[in-house]
Amino acid sequence: MDTQTIQALRGSVTGPIVTPGDPGYDEARKVYNYMIDRHPAAVVSCRTADDVAAVVRQAAQTGTELAVRGGAHSVPGFGTADDALVVDLSGLSSVTVDSSSRTARVGGGATWGAFNDATGAFGLATTGGIISTTGVGGLTLGGGIGYLSRAYGLSCDNLLAAQVVTADGLKLTTSEAENPDLFWGLRGGGGNFGVVTEFTFRLHPVAQVYGGPMFFELSDGEAVLSYFNEFIQTAPREYGGFPGFQIAPPLPFVPEDRVGEPFIVVVSCWTGSEADGEQILQRFRDVANPVAELVGPMPYPALNSAFDGLVPRGLQHYWKAAYAGDLSKDLIRAHMEHGPKVPVVNSTVHLYPINGACHDLAADETAFGHRDATYAMVIAGMWPDPVDNDANTQWVRDYYSAIAPLSQPGGYVNFASSDDQSKVAANYGANYARLQEVKRRYDPDNLFHLNQNIQP
Ligand SMILES: Cc1cc2nc3c(=O)[nH]c(=O)nc-3n(C[C@H](O)[C@H](O)[C@H](O)COP(=O)(O)OP(=O)(O)OC[C@H]3O[C@@H](n4cnc5c(N)ncnc54)[C@H](O)[C@@H]3O)c2cc1C
After folding, report:
1. d(C-alpha 411, C-alpha 396), whole Å
2. Ligand 1: which atom is nearest the Cα of residue 412?
3. What is the pLDDT of residues 398-453, one digit of tens each?
4. How far is the CA of 129 from the centre of ligand 1 (A)?
């Protein structure tokens, strides 16, 4: 990129711009997944919506690649690209809570940790991810699955309004009342339509929750998964946990001689009373004896950050995603064949239930097109050493090949990898054609294409 373009940008944005050769460039070009090694032309730290509009216009006018970065967690590394202008939204991270209307206004680059701390101070929360360092932006725009999904719907279901910079550099307000087609597309369309500089969310009274992880022997795996599947069909919406596979980390609650072994894990979150939570979780102990557990009452933000230490920035990532209506016997068997082979403590497999409140909306009410699924399943390969890339990637691929034929078509866009573009239509599901219409209206030249891309 020529120096004139960078100079022009420096004159029109308020935040710092880091270019190759500048101190901090090597840090600025990186994203959370260190398998991604790209060299953008400039990383522009945006502090205002006008900053964002200036970068978007500059990219459109000069035909420069444009990458948008919120929390930087995208597994395919959509928040950076060679020779690109990167809109870095981390400077737009304020969270303002209005406890009387139970709403929060959140900058487009905020993380769930900042969000939960701010809303938690008022005993309020909305559905967010299970790791606190993930961005509100990318997670919400793809749907948003977490502990509160069964109680309050997906993150995008709790969106009341969004301020958006579109491909022509215009700043638009979107809500059910203003630009409703764009607002529809934002709720599941995954960053295809513009840069959201501010989200407004509905909040719910969630202060203390009862939950945490229980580790079960692999020999009890089939029984635990079968029970979970039966339980979740009619479980009260206050229950928002999920089963999965996890190597036991070296934590005090794990017997020392079991650290490093793979287990079936059930991570629970109960938003009702503690007494009811104790009863609900006891049902899992009645199925099988946990080898280790760390269950109890805790503030919701504490549960939301409990596993952050397992997934620090800088790991190698390769993920695959599938939806399921039900955990059939065959699907459970496929999980039991591949889940126990989870290679490292950072990698995990989660089977998130997305029934309950997620099913209150019809498939066409928002862009999220998989309202008929009961589970969003993710095989999240995450490991520290690039030397292990082939082996770990192969584990994810083999696992996915086994479960895909037993699952519904498509997978959650936010859990997909860069080699999943061929599955884009299935991943957006029932709403793909309408998403294309919205894309044609707001981004006909596909300026925003570093995402699970909807073809205009
Ligand atoms: C460790 C880890 C845990 C996760 N846990 C969950 C979970 O519990 N639930 C869940 O649903 N997902 C989860 N995810 C997946 C997550 O939703 C996606 O990775 C998501 O893209 C992350 O958003 P981000 O803002 O951090 O990422 P980024 O890399 O910053 O952005 C990803 C995409 O979103 C777009 N984007 C981001 N912010 C904006 C914005 N403000 N306006 C317009 N476009 C934007 C970008 O253009 C890009 O295409 C997890 C991911 C990781 C790595």
Report:
1. 14
2. 11
3. 999 999 999 999 999 999 998 999 999 999 998 999 999 999 999 999 999 999 99
4. 9
